[in-house]
Specification:
homodimer, 345 residues, alpha/beta, Rossmann fold, 2 domains, five-stranded parallel sheet, 15 helices, 10 strands
Chain lengths: 345, 345
């Protein structure tokens, strides 16, 4: 099964990316620092858009760099691209082929902005349109549902953050990612058992906040692509502003809540959902108190720095989606209605 | 019923806002033009965040102004606000009271940015934190589900766009909004009949693109708040990148597809969903060909300029959500689990 084996490739791919692309990333960071960059303007779709959500929090919190997620249709259908004054224009795409994402980079270059492609294909149209290319080197991804290219995109984004900070401590922390991912893969059979409970789940909400807002979106996307469940992602704050009204007894809520600055806010939300609204909870966390709120508990390795938790916490979420696909009797390799490369305009 | 009557107040409220706040908006536009603004940095949650999605497209397409949607938790939990160099910092909130949105404006002011509050309460903490206040003057909104404050926020955003363009033609176009909204309200009983068909709908997808990406999000939010349906909004492009796999025969898709530059892309998607995937469609459009794809058709007035379609197309969507709430036997005035003012940190 390709999907499952690609999930298991991740520790090795991430170690290799960290090793082989460190100098390239340092060079890109220097180019950014030598330009007058006020903010990042990032274009992506699907899984890569979720990697962009991680960049939004990480580059904001660690590098003081605000990030705007591009509306690619402004560049294609409306032909009225905004003035990208002082922007670092970034395109993220596994295949580097979607015309709308390429057009954002081309326009950035036309306006004289510094442009960066983060892609798995270094000779793709996206790479050719960019001043700098960060090749995530994840190897060919055969499964339609992206897994190893997602964590490689997160790693690329995290490496760039460490390089912009010029922080040896952060580079050292990055070096532990392959080990933590490996430890998480050891939960494979436990997660297979947990997934059985959700054989007949047809809809759910996925919660995450801060750095793991991205994880909630990516977990939900894997469930939609593979298991055809209506899985809707939210930050716990946005969820309170209306959608929480949907929750009735037994409603399934999947949550990513590792130790960190937003943990208390996530714990308060999960406590309310379990104790007052009688929700059914699946929680990914390293914290025993948070885990104890859930009927289904997925325990992360301890002491992962919060900024790196998204690279580890998505791994059990990928396994959950993969096993649930089999439990529901679907094909993990051939999801209906979607193909590996989607070209949108 | 307050919700229904507030939906019906909209033509009058919009006409009054346009009349009474034009000069204020022109003054705000002058302040923006006299500052060195590279991009807008906008903070909002819930319904107001959907108004922010409209600003993202409109200010980008008509005013060349890129927009970043703020991640408020960077300002509260992480205490690492990004450097907001050359940003116009905008907070949008009906109540003007959510501490996380207020904190974004306070930080913008601290960093010397131009700050703007768009709010229904001109003496709220949000208004007090801003250099400029655009009071949307929608009158007290009593229903928990926001309707008239949403269209008033859109009107405020559209007026600011017209003022930045200094375009008399666009101001004239804005003057037709109350009439078009009024014409749409005449569909009330037809929409009540359509809503009966969805008595047992428990989940759906809502599609919109370009300017009406915001409408898809706001329609979905009303359904979640009022009818407890899992309603997930997408642009037709993002939907193709994975989530389309969820659709099986009879799956309900609600779509907003008025005449305009993204109409062809929406029509292609709806044709595929109906003819190949046998979906159940509810379509809001002025175009007979697009409407003819749907089992349930909601016809907009003709010849609304595309940039203003979100102010009109949300009205029948609000009516649909309101009537479906009654059809399902729920209380339109007291949605469970949510309150009028939600304070998030």
């Amino acid at each position: 099964m390709t999907l499952h084996s690609e999930i298991f490739e991740q520790p090795e791919r991430l170690a290799s990316l960290l090793d082989r692309q460190k100098q390239t990333v340092i060079d890109i960071a220097k180019a950014i620092q030598s330009h007058n960059v006020s903010y990042a303007f990032l274009a992506a779709r699907g899984t890569s858009d979720n990697a962009g959500r991680y960049a939004n929090y990480l580059w904001g919190a660690h590098n003081g760099l605000p990030l705007a997620l591009a509306a690619p249709s402004l560049f294609t259908y409306y032909q009225s691209p905004p003035r990208l004054q002082n922007a670092l224009v970034v395109g993220v795409s596994q295949s580097g082929q979607s015309p709308d994402i390429v057009s954002v980079l081309e326009e950035g270059r036309r306006q004289g902005c510094l442009t960066l492609a983060i892609t798995n294909l270094s000779d793709s149209p996206l790479a050719k349109a960019a001043d700098y290319v960060l090749d995530i080197q994840a190897g060919e991804e055969k499964a339609v549902a992206a897994t190893k290219t997602y964590t490689a995109e997160l790693m690329a984004i995290a490496m760039l953050s460490a390089a912009l900070n010029n922080s040896e401590e952060r580079w050292l922390e990055l070096g532990n990612i392959p080990k933590w991912a490996e430890q998480t893969l050891a939960l494979d059979s436990a997660i297979a058992r947990i997934s059985e409970r959700f054989r007949y789940m047809s809809q759910c909400v996925v919660l995450g906040r801060g750095f793991n807002y991205a994880t909630a979106f990516e977990w939900a996307l894997k469930l939609k692509e593979l298991t055809y469940i209506i899985a809707e992602p939210y930050s716990s704050a946005d969820f309170q502003h209306g959608p929480i009204a949907m929750v009735e007894g037994g409603f399934p809520i999947l949550a990513v809540a590792p130790t960190g600055k937003v943990q208390e806010s996530m714990r308060d939300m999960l406590t309310r959902l379990r104790q007052q609204q009688d929700a059914e909870l699946v929680v990914i966390s390293d914290d025993k108190d948070v885990l104890s709120l859930a009927q289904s508990q997925i325990q992360l390795p301890p002491q992962i720095p919060e900024w790196l938790t998204p690279l580890v916490s998505i791994v059990p979420a990928q396994l959950f989606a993969c096993h649930l696909t089999k439990v529901k009797g679907y094909d993990t390799e051939k999801p209906r209605s979607i193909t590996k490369v989607t070209e949108t305009h």
